[in-house]
Amino acid sequence: MAPTTDLTPEPFSLRGIAVSAFGPSLLFGIGEGAILPVIPLTARDLGASVAQAALMVTLIGIGSMVSNIPASLITLHRGERWAIVAAAVWCALAMALSAWTDHLGLFALGCFMIGMSQAVFSLARQSYLTEAVPPEFRARAMSTLGGAMRVGLFIGPFIAALVIHHFGLTGAYGVGIGALIVAAGVAARIPDLVPAADETQPHAVAASITAKPSFRSILRDHHRLFVTLGIGVLLVSAVRATRQAVIPLWADHIGLAPSVAALIYGVAGGVEMLVFYPAGKVMDQKGRRWVAVPSMITMGIPLLLMPFTHGAATLLLAASLIGFGNGIGSGMVMTLGADHSPRTGRAHFLGVWRLMSDIGSSCGPTLLSFLAATLSLGAGIAATGLIAFAAAAQLAYWIPRAHAARQARQRVR
Question: What is the pLDDT of residues 105-147, one digit of tens each?
């Protein structure tokens, strides 16, 4: 009797792809975290004014925003793996230019290039995981992806601080370059996984094979999604970007020492890193609404109450709640983008999705600055809280309910 062969596929495990999928994100985060705090200081050393030094940081965000569409083209034509490698190498070159130039204009170019690499890296890693991970594990994968990046951004400044003590500001860029070179090496070994069957996309197979996607067709076919759920994502990104500024600004406003402000900010960041995986598991098992809406409400309440805080203890409580809300929403925007992205034209879709997210990230701090200048800082922070509630309402209305998603999968079967 001939021996039988067990053709049952092995159950999927995130641990099986942990190093290749999440390692580059952790290293990329370390690299960026190492240099972000010293960019304004380097600009000042090159003769920049305070406003010009702040502009250097803004250029990173601008570089990312304008590069989302080109990033989708790179990912589409070169593949996710080599797009990730190219982004890491490009970012390392940008850091080298920023570290060893004596010209402020070239330094600005380096900052812009860092933003460009962010766009390519983020889109390619999201596209890769969307294909590699089964839909039932998608939220956990995206949450872990976002969490790995945040862990890197958190520990990067501490590593850089040790090196700066011995080698000066250039040492921070050395840490960043080293982390990115290792990230490129790890990314180059990412396996070419067979795309996972996506039961959440009931598209006609023949159409997906013959259609040649374009940005025009993506915008035409998904315009309703972009102006409904996409607006919610834009609002989420505005709140998240603004929360990075409100904690140190309000700490300074109420007269706390910079060291205390840094400690409060660090504690809030630590809270974020503790909850990303459990939140992803809840999204996978209960549905996206169960995390997306509470995330925004949990951030909105302390933002509304922060203008009433007058000391370190109350500000720490508000900042910790903001960190908790932001932490449980880790990977939320990427998960929603992956859920709705079509099999054909996925890179184009994610490029537009990330563009909307980056527009929100740019508009949020701009609105805070405008309101702080025309009304007061407290009014700007409270307005950010209201935006968080608007985001919660938008997400609650437009995110498909869990039972509807299950019914859609059953119809596919």
Answer: 999 999 999 999 999 999 988 888 888 888 888 888 888 888 8
- The DSSP-derived string for 221-234 is HHHHHHTTHHHHHH
Please count the CA atoms within 13 angstroms of the CA of 404 that sit on its side-chain side: 6
Distances (CA, A) of 196 to 136, 138, 188, 408, 410: 11, 11, 21, 17, 17
Instruction: Please report where in the chains the tokens 């904690």 appear, as a residue.
Output: 247
Residue ranges and CATH numbers for the domains of the chain are: 18-188 (1.20.1250.20), 207-412 (1.20.1250.20)
Assign 3-class secondary structure to 114-157.
HHHHHHHHHHHHHHHHHHHCCHHHHHHHHHHHHHHHHHHHHHHH
CA pair distance 35, 161, nearest whole angstrom: 10
Measured CA to CA, the distance from residue 343 to residue 198 in angstroms comes to: 8
Distance separating the N- and C-terminal Cα atoms of the chain: 35
Residue 140 gets the label, from left (phi > 0), alpha (psi -120 to 50) or beta, of alpha
Q: Which residues contact 245 (CB under 8 A, 6 or more apart)?
A: 365, 368
Note if the pTM is more than 0.85. no
CA–CA separation, 77 vs 73, rounded Å? 6
Return the exposure string of 145-171: e unless at least 16 CB atoms fall within 10 Å of the residue's CB, then b: bbbbbbbbbbbbbebbeebbeeeebeb
**The 3-state secondary structure of 89-104, one letter per residue:** HHHHHHHHHHHHCCCH
User: Are residues 159 and 26 in contact, defined by beta-carbon separation less than 8 angstroms?
Assistant: no
Cα distances (angstroms) measured from residue 48 to each of 32, 40, 307 = 21, 9, 32
- C-alpha–C-alpha distance, residues 252 and 405, integer Å: 46
Q: How far is CA 377 from the centre of its chain?
A: 26
Residues 6+ apart with CB under 8 A from 159: 30, 34, 175
Exposure of 122 in the CB half-sphere (CA atoms within 13 A): 31
Per residue in 143-163, pLDDT (tens digit) is 888 888 888 888 888 888 888
Q: What confidence category does residue 194 fall into, taking pLDDT thresholds of 50, 70 and 90?
A: low
